[in-house]
Amino acid sequence: MINYIVCLKWGNKYGPEYVNTLEQMVRRYCTLPFEFVCFTENPQGLNSTVRVMPIAQGYGVSGWWHKPLLFNPSLPLGDPQGTVLYIDLDVIVFRSIDNLLTYKPNEFCVIRDFNRCNNPKWNRFNSSVVRWNIGQHPQIYRDFIQNPAAPVRRFHGDQDWLYAQVKNDFNFWPDEWIQSYKWEMRGKPPMVRNQDGTKDFISPGVPKIHPQTSIAVFHGDPQPKHCQDPWCKENWK
After folding, report:
1. How far apart are the first and last CA of the chain?
2. What is residue 20's DSSP assignment?
3. pLDDT band (50, 70, 90) for residue 74
4. Where is 128: in which H helix or E strand?
5. Neighbours of 120 (CB within 10 A)
6. Where do runs of H (alpha helix) occur along the chain?
7. Among 38, 91, 144, 201, which is least packed by CB within 10 angstroms?
């Protein structure tokens, strides 16, 4: 069974440097065999070591709404029973992620959404890091392509669609493994808008890092590229 570590780049929100940096971080911190794959409509600027796959066309969706298409049971990666570990582009990988490929093998695993900071019993999904076997939960793809406009109207984002489709057949990653940089590692510091329109923390700081955390997720602002924290500059490369 082949491991595929997969990302998605669509439009202009993230430049090719986000894909290339993610690939470099993954290769530093994964010792298990894998293929690194980027689904995109524009491969310009990507490292030659990135395997490029075209985004499925004709569904009229944008951004994160391409994620349900990755659950196609006929996803043409090569191994029809391969394992897919999906990782968003706006993350910093800074410790071994081997455990993300070996934890509860053959089961669907996802982040417990970071609203867990406000509600310890929160049980919704964050789809920044998701793992599944090709062909698992095909209803995510099958029901979506029947009428993509309907879930786009009804749900805030793809992770809410995944939650509604997967029901009870899933596992949360241990909360400590994957953390919100802004909320959990930096404790929700005040932010300011820069002259170029980007947002960052008012002043640089040092994150609180749990000994089991290997991925910091940058949902919203700031993005890893723009964060002035020295820790981010040292690790996003």
Report:
1. 29
2. H
3. very high
4. strand 125-133
5. 7
6. 16-29, 98-102, 139-146, 149-154, 158-166, 230-235
7. 201
